[in-house]
């Protein structure tokens, strides 16, 4: 699992950096020299973010796990602070070390099917220390990947029986991620030393057993946490002129002058990784009355994606477009209810989306964009079991309608000396919220019952795709 996840996310995060490796070669040199950027030095940062949590869980007795496991979920917001040091080893590459902390409210659920009880699980803090490697897409734009150690803290909680409690606990683990950092001049703001970074990260933690106070029963859970954050960064040594400090590396690049044609149709295909958190409750399908306590179940998995769209370059730096895409895969979690004493695998197998995007050209062949629109999600039918694994019922296939918002970076594909006109790669983050609907339960004989489980999913994904543009033109040579 770790090797697959490591490779997948590394490719996703490195996509934009690797694709941009040819930017300097594609520039037409102009006599005006762009300002020098110095990336060597210390920095501090602070910001906020949003995360989804998925936890593989087992009820335990004397440390022995139950037959059936469940995947519970969570979601919420957090604040973050960080500190680090970067060193610019060449005109194009930057390495660094850092540490950061998150404090917030990523809130989910614990469920003990053996005893038919649930509780709220809150990831209130996380700490990380790691290293990063970045490529300078432009003098003031760094695309990077990072990896390292992570520590997560979970608050103590009392289950809904009012008796079973577990104390505060923690988990150790690792993380991998990537992002983009740029100075505020990127937005036309004159603020020397100030930068902004947006980062995706996924962390996997170890499994530990938490025993109820004064009891032999307990619950063991292994969390996965996926986050996206945006932070303001202050760099203490970013504005240095050539020769001001001997030995300090600098990155000087001619101001961009070529024009590329982003107007036209395109097709795309790729893959990604996602998690979902679903707010669930049991209901009486005849009256609609809520018969159980709200819980948050979760899931995780991989998917493939295909897409088509049309972009229009409205001026030298801005691009707008429309698109549609589809995802096919295996984001697999749980549909569970402690009161009914049932659980089963819930699979989000397909998603469809149609939307618009607005992008800014950070370089002639590199587009940073945001997007939003309509989304549709399909979920396969579920076979439900009791705590012993015995099949006791099922639900039918269902779907949900909703909306999404996201963003990413798209670059042309001319790295490693490969001349590939029209070929691009894009890396994109997306979060979708879907409607709440009730899935009716059938008993083991296939007879419809009056019980149902209503769930409202939130799905968070990151993906990388190859893109072919049908109208990608050659650069226009600047004239002086």
UniProtKB/TrEMBL annotation:
InterPro entries: Autotransporte_beta_dom_sf, Beta-barrel_OMP, OMP-like, OMP/PagP_B-barrel. Its main location: membrane. It comes from the Bacteria. Residues 9-236, 255-470 form the Outer membrane protein beta-barrel domain. Residues 1-20 form the signal peptide. It is found in: Cell outer membrane. Keywords: Cell outer membrane, Membrane, Signal. Belongs to the Omp25/RopB family. This is Outer membrane protein beta-barrel domain-containing protein. It comes from Afipia carboxidovorans (strain ATCC 49405 / DSM 1227 / KCTC 32145 / OM5).
């Amino acid at each position: 699992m770790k090797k697959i996840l490591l490779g997948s996310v590394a490719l996703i995060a490195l996509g934009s950096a690797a694709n941009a490796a040819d930017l300097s070669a594609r520039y037409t040199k102009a006599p005006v020299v762009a300002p020098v950027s110095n990336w060597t030095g210390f920095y501090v940062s602070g910001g906020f973010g949003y995360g989804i949590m998925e936890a593989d869980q087992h009820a335990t007795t004397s440390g022995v796990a139950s037959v059936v496991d469940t995947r519970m979920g969570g979601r919420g917001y957090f604040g973050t602070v960080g500190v680090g040091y970067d060193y610019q080893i060449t005109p194009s590459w930057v390495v660094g070390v850092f540490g950061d902390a998150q404090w917030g409210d990523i809130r989910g659920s614990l469920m003990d099917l053996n005893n038919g009880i649930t509780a709220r699980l809150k990831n209130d803090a996380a700490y990380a220390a790691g290293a990063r490697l970045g490529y300078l897409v432009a003098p003031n734009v760094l695309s990077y990947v990072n990896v390292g150690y992570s520590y997560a803290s979970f608050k103590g909680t009392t289950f809904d029986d009012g008796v079973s409690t577990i104390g505060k606990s923690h988990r150790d683990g690792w993380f991998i991620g990537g992002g983009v950092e740029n100075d505020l001049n990127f937005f036309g703001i004159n603020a020397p030393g100030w930068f902004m970074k947006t980062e995706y990260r996924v962390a996997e933690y170890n499994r530990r057993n938490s025993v109820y106070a004064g009891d032999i029963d307990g619950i063991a859970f292994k969390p996965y946490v996926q986050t996206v954050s945006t932070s303001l960064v202050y760099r203490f040594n970013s504005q240095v002129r050539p020769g001001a400090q001997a030995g300090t590396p600098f990155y000087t690049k001619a101001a961009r002058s070529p024009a590329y044609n982003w107007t036209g149709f395109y097709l795309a295909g790729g893959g990604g990784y996602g998690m979902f958190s679903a707010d669930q409750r049991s209901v009486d399908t005849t009256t609609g009355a809520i018969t159980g306590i709200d819980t948050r179940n979760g899931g995780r998995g991989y998917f493939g994606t295909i897409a088509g769209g049309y972009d229009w370059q409205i001026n030298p730096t801005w691009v707008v477009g429309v698109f549609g895409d589809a995802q096919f895969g295996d984001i697999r979690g749980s549909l569970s209810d402690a009161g009914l004493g049932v659980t089963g695998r819930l699979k989000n197998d397909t998603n469809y989306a149609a939307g618009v995007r607005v992008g800014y050209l950070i370089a002639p062949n590199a587009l940073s964009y945001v997007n939003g629109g309509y989304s549709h999600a399909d979920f396969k039918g579920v076979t439900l079991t009791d705590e012993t694994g015995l099949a006791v019922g099922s639900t039918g296939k269902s779907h949900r309608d909703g909306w999404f918002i996201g963003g990413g970076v798209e670059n042309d594909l001319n790295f490693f000396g490969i001349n590939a006109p029209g070929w691009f790669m894009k890396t994109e983050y997306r979060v979708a919220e879907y409607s709440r609907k009730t899935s009716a339960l059938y008993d083991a004989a296939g007879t419809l019952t009056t019980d149902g489980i209503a769930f409202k999913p939130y799905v968070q994904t990151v993906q990388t795709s190859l893109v072919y543009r049908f109208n990608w033109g050659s650069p226009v040579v600047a004239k002086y």
